[in-house]
Amino acid sequence: MNVFRLAGDMTHLMSVLVLLLKIHTIKSCAGISLKTQELYALVFATRYLDIFIHFVSLYNTVMKLIFLGSSFSILWYMRHHKIVRRTYDKDQDTFRHHFLILPCLLLALLINEKFTFMEVMWTFSLFLEAVAILPQLVLLQRTRNIDNLTGQYVFLLGAYRALYILNWIYRYFTEPHYVHWITWISGLVQTLLYADFFYYYFLSWKNNVKLQLPA
């Protein structure tokens, strides 16, 4: 554990808490893509298959449970809560996210560090996480109505991955034989997808105006 890894984990956790705060307190999921949330639930479900058979640390297990539980809780709220589900903008959230799943799975079958079920699923989760934010970004571009909590949620998600890149760089120079190029490439792709959002987020913060993405 190093400061970049810890900061990345805490930023990721804060993004989830911000989204749950918006949904549970305001009773609204306006501006949130159900398609992205479904992809993230699939990411965590396939990445943490080893949660009950491979113990790393109490911290690791607790974080896995938090991300699994929060992901499926968010899905339940958006699909079944009698108030929250009415605020979901289904007509705008039309990105065909299922077209992302099969290519990521095929890529994981072809490119992996070890051809075992657990390893392929872990690699699949990395590839899928890299593109899971796409439906959310497309939705924000279409609606152009980004409230503060939604903007903070997406910003924290992007910041978490950027901090993880710093963690990987730190580990590369401090740990012998630390080379995980699949993780590095998927993380870099994921961070680059946020570049446009980051630009307009900082621009709105600098000028103290409401965040809007170009159509």
From TrEMBL:
Domain of life: Eukaryota
GO molecular function list: ER retention sequence binding
GO CC annotations on file: endoplasmic reticulum membrane
GO biological process, one term: protein retention in ER lumen
Topology class, membrane: Multi-pass membrane protein
Keywords on record: Endoplasmic reticulum, ER-Golgi transport, Membrane, Protein transport, Receptor, Transmembrane, Transmembrane helix, Transport
InterPro entries assigned to the protein according to its UniProt record, in alphabetical order: ER_ret_rcpt
Subcellular location: Endoplasmic reticulum membrane
Keyword DNA-binding: no
Transmembrane regions listed in the UniProt entry: 52-78, 99-115, 121-140, 152-170, 182-202
One of the Pfam families matching this protein, by short name: ER_lumen_recept
Family: Belongs to the ERD2 family.
PANTHER family from the UniProt entry: ER LUMEN PROTEIN RETAINING RECEPTOR
Name used for this protein in its record: ER lumen protein-retaining receptor
GN (gene name): LOC109726067
